[in-house]
Every structure is written in C-alpha cells, then in structure tokens.
Amino acid sequence: MRSSRFLIPSLVLALGLGSLALASDPTPTTASAPAKRKAHKARAGKKSVKKKIVTPAHRKRLVRAFVASRELRPMAQQLLQARTPAAYAAVEHFALAHVADDAGALAWLVIGYAHILDGEHALAVDPLRLAKPRAADLGDYVDYYLATAYAGSNRPQDALTTLKDFATRYPDSLLTRDAQVTLANAMVASGNAAQAVSLLEPGRTPLRADVELALGRAWASTGERDRAVDALYRVFYTMANSDEAEAANLELQTLAKSGPVAPPGTSLRRTRADLLLQNRRATDAVPEYQALLQQASEAEVRSLQIALAVAFYRSGKSKEASDLLAQMADQPDEINAQRLFYQLEIARPDELKVSDLITAMRTSASNSPWFQDALLSAANTYLLQKDYEPAARLYEELAQRSGDGKYGPYATWKTAWLQLRLGKQTEAASTLERYIDLYPYGSELTAALYWRGRIAEDQKDLAKASAYYGKIGERFYNAYYADLARARLRNIDSSVKAADEPLLEKISTRAAAKINLASPPDDLRVQKSRLLENAGLVDLAVRELQAAAGSNSEWLAGETARLYSDSGKYYRALQTVKRAVPGYNSFQLSELPRPVWEYLFPKPYWDDLRRYASANGLDPFLVASLIRQESEFNAAALSRANAMGLMQILPGTGKKVAKELKIKGFDSALLLDPTYNLQVGTRYFSDLLKRYDGRIEYALAAYNAGPERVDEWRKDSYRDMPEFVESIPFTETREYVQAIVRNASLYQRLYPNP
C-alpha cells in the first residue's frame, strides 16, 4: 500500500479539521477502474469564457502560491510520470511541509489526480478533500476531481454534494460541462435519472460522446428505452473512434438482455464502418462491411464492395482485395475508377499490369481524380524500377492534368528532375522555370532554384547561376539547399554580378513571424495555468492558456512552448512552435527570439548525448538532429513499426547492438530509457557511418530505409552527393536526409560552443 494511506489522518489533525472530517469515509479500497485510463480527463467545452483580471491583492496571493510551489514541480512531474510509492511519498512530504499555504493544497491535488490516473478512486478522496480548504483559484479542479473520485468509489451521493451549484460557484470554469456529466452519472447512480436527463438534454450541442453516453444511461434508467438506444447508437455508430464507443456498446448489450432493441439502420452501420476505415482501423472495418453486404440492396452493393476491398487492402489482405475487385462489374462510374486504381496499387511493381491499367483508365476514367492518383502511383512504380523515361512521361501527364491541383507542383518538379537525370538539360531548365513561375509557393521551390542554378553553372552562365543561388540564401536562409547554394557561390568569382532574373521576382518576401513571448501578467487564467504547471498538470495548464488567449494567439504559442519545455516535454514545445512558425527555416537567427530557436532545436539529455556521440566518433549536433527527426526528443516515442525511444531503435537492432556492446540482460523496454537508447543508437549509427566510409548522407538514408536499399540506390551514377540525395526514390527518406543535414548545420550555428 502507498504511504498516503497512513500520513493523511495525522495531517487532518494538524490542520484542525478534527476527526469528524473523515468520519463518514470508510476505509479506502482500490477502485476497479482500469489503471491509467484517460477517459476521465477534462474536455474543454465550447462555451465562451470571460477574461478575469487579477487585482493587486489577488495577484500577490497567486504569486506567493506560485513561488512556494516551484519546488513541487519536479516531484509532481515524477509522480505523474512514474506513480511509484517513492514518488507519492515525496509529494506527500511536500504537502506536509506546506500545510498552511496554497502550495500544500496544490500538492494534495496532484496526489489525488495521480490516484485517479491509476484507477484508485478511493485513494484519491482523502488528498483531494485535504486540498479543498486552500484550493483558492483551483477550487473548480479540486471539486471536479473529488467528485470524480467519489463517483469512482461508488459514492454517488458525495459526488452530488460536491458538485452542487458547481456552475454558480465557478462561472468561468473550463470544467463546467465535464462536471455536468459527472453530476448526471451520480444522479443516475443515486436513483435520480430523470433529474440527470433534465440536466444534460439542454446542453447537447455541440455533440460530445460522454454527454450522449450519460444521457443514454439516464434514459435507460427512466425506462425510456427507445431514447436510450438512440443516444447509445449515436455514440457507438457516429462516434466510433471515441473512448466512449465501447462503453456504449456494453450498455446496448445490457439493454438487449431485458428486452428487444430496435436494430440500427443501414446508414448508421455504414457510418461506423467508414469512420473505422478513415481512422486506420481497417481490420475492424472489414467485418462491418461484410455484414452490410449480406443485407445490401442492389443499389448499395458496388459502394460496399469497393469499401470492403479498400479495407482488405489497408489491413494487409491484398489477395482478398484483388479477388473482390476482380468480381466487381466494369461500369462507367467513379466506383469503377476507384476499382481500377486499387487494382493498379495491388499490381505494383509489375510494370506491364500497371501500364495496362493506366491505358484502361485513360480510356474510361480520364477525368476522374482516381486517374490522377493512378498516374502518380504508376510514375512512382517506374521510378522505383529506375525506368526513368516512362516515369518522366507519366509525371508530365499528371502535371498537365492536375494544373493547380494537389499534384501539380510535385509532378512538375519530378518531371524536371528526371529530365535532368536523363541528361536533357534544355527541357529540364524549361520545366524548372515553369515550376518557379506557376508554384512560387511550392515545397520543392528551393530544389527547383538550386538545380536551375546548377544547369546555368554547367552552361557557364555564372551570372544566372549566381542569381538563383543568391535567391535561395536570401529568401530561405536555413533550407537544405541554402547551404549548398552558398557553397556554390563561394566557388564563383566574386566579380561576377548576379543577373537580373524577372522570374525570381515572383517569389514572395518572408512574412514576419507572429510570435510573442510575453503573456498577459494580470490574466487570471494565465496565473492558474502557472499553478497547474507547478503541479505537473501540463495539459490542464495549456487549456487555461488557450482559453485566456481566445482569438488573440500571438503570445499563446510562446507561452505554451515555454510551459512544455520547462516541464520536460520538449517534443511538444517543438511541435507547438513548428505550427506557429511553419516557415521558420527561412529565417535568420536574428529574426526570431532566441528562446523560439531553443524550443525548435533543444538540447535535452545533452551530457549523455555528447558522451556517447564522442565515444562513437560522432558529431553531437548530428546526433541531436537525427533524434529531432526521429522522435522530436520524445523518449517514450513508439512507432507503428515498433521503433522505440529517442533514436527510434527497433528491438531486433537493439538486441544485436547490445550484444556487440556486451550489455547483459537486454530487454526491449530499456530502449525507452534515454541513456540506454543513446548508448545503443549512437553505436548503431556509427557502424553505418563506417560502412559508408564516413559519408553522412548514405548513413542517414540507411538509418531510415535500410542499408540494402541504399546499396541498391548507389549503383546508379551521380555527379555528387546532392544529386544522390535528390535521387532517393522514397520521399520520406529523401526529406529525412535533407532535414537532418540542414538541422545539424543550424544546430552548429545556434550553439557555437557545444
């Protein structure tokens, strides 16, 4: 048992609450709710929220609480991350040392919240009750989670008492709607289901799965089965990917035991199947579509057949998908275009079948978006087979058909690149200029500028080359191609004046970055967020910041990134600023505040990183850049391929390298430990570098796509390394290599003294 069970009674006496304060509480027992379930977490409602300004006296108390609780932050973070007996004891010790101030209440809130995360609702009650007397501005959080603990401990009456007049007592709380759901569930458990319906029904807009689930339960308890079924169906079928969907299904099964339940309509069932497929749950979607097909009308069959075939394909059952697609009738409609596209996808890499299917689609579905998808797929097939002539033709056809559509820029760029690889410099130059003219916003713009400059340089037109190279360095300062362009410029005689290229005037100037690091100091929500931050309740703190910012978000990203970074969630700080400043690679260091760059390019785990990088002969900034690309410094990252930790090591690779390092007792879980992951990952990357004689780009490509593929790609001839990198046929790998090389350079500029 955790030590909190024994420390709390003594603190009750110390606070002068008396023995009666806990007299009604039975001995706590472990709740049966699943550990670590996150469905209990508060969700923000859509109601408008007022900005409440802090008075000087109020601010003084908030600042005092913030200062007093700063020492709590690392202990709270450790507790919420590990929830070990030692972590609980540390926070309890802090609470005991601060019985007379608000910081102690904050510590009890953390302990109660941690118990709820562990599904130990009964154990959460006492610390949350002890938080109440000095909860102050966080009273809504204490009451909400105390009511949650009571409800999870099968004490609905206490939950009702705790949440009585919640909206009146906390009119600005972000938890009002969540509290209504908890209150309604407690009403149902107390035999007041009709009251729960009256509470919830007026607030069903916008729809929320937890509200509909609670309403379904309430209506079931009042005997209104049809209305209960309607609400539960809405959750299970139209909110299929919510946490509440399975709970709704269980409620429906319970209802069915006591009498017949009207079956769901075909439309609802189709909605669920489609939602599952759209949310990468193709395996779950397959039986849903199969059941629908058994009862489908003639008009519905083709639509369901193609959906089932797609579900088969996405769940890895290509043969079943192929058989079903072959059975479908060949009709002149969009479903047939989709059918041919998926037949092409399954046929890859058989170039003959792919060619036949493209010909068929060109005849029967030339105006369909599926034909554009098919052209891209076919072009990629030829590219992977190193059959560049037909690949270039297909990319060019796709570019012409797509125009300003989603494939226009990419297809135009790939056409130009393959023309260049085929030695057709004149055609390539023309296509590159067309790209710059039509898509001055395109993601391949820096590549187009650089290689147009290379063509000019090859043709001895150094003035034109200088113009293109100069434009990259001026407009896209930190881009991968910016460093390459600057290097090319250094080899051109300084007396050469850049040509006047009107085409380059189409490229827009850099927009100013809208990010402000100063948050409003007298906003109550900002102050509440800082207290929640000290309690390790980072997600709750962020919600308060978002509510404080409203439509004015210029300071929100900076404050949110600071909060995440100070809480050790570096990856979330990084993601926040990347969203706020999507074009950050275009800026010089002086154009963004220094903290913004440090959020974008952090140095966590630096001592271990530098130590293991040095031991393996690696540049620590290169390793940091690799980690940034792999996991964004999320030590707990786990990919769909089961790659783990900072450097995203596969368990098989980790076991092999651990054996080389003579590390005994390998367990894949160790890869989630930052130190262990760095030790293994740097050794593995060092081995790849040795394999490729120190050529960083080859090693990076192998780290991402595997050495066998890199060895195959290297069989082609390339003038230099940039040409090899741009020729990598996998977009993910190509962009991966370019990003790491670019970011390693930026790290070095940002931290000249590592």
From the 3D structure, determine the CATH topology of the largest domain: Serine Threonine Protein Phosphatase 5, Tetratricopeptide repeat
* 3D shape: globular
Could you give the count of β-strands? 0
What's the alpha carbon Rg, rounded to whole Å? 31 Å
CATH architecture group name of the largest domain: Alpha Horseshoe
Taken together, the total number of domains comes to 4
CATH class of the largest domain: Mainly Alpha
In CATH terms, the superfamily of the largest domain is: Tetratricopeptide repeat domain
Structural features, described:
By secondary structure, the protein is mainly α. It is built from 40 helices and no strands. The chain has 4 domains: 4-190, Tetratricopeptide repeat domain (Serine Threonine Protein Phosphatase 5, Tetratricopeptide repeat, Alpha Horseshoe), CATH 1.25.40.10; 387-507, Tetratricopeptide repeat domain (Serine Threonine Protein Phosphatase 5, Tetratricopeptide repeat), CATH 1.25.40.10; 524-600; 606-750, Orthogonal Bundle (Lysozyme). Helices cover 65% and strands 0% of the residues. The longest helix has 20 residues, at 731-750. Residues 1-49 have low confidence and may be disordered.
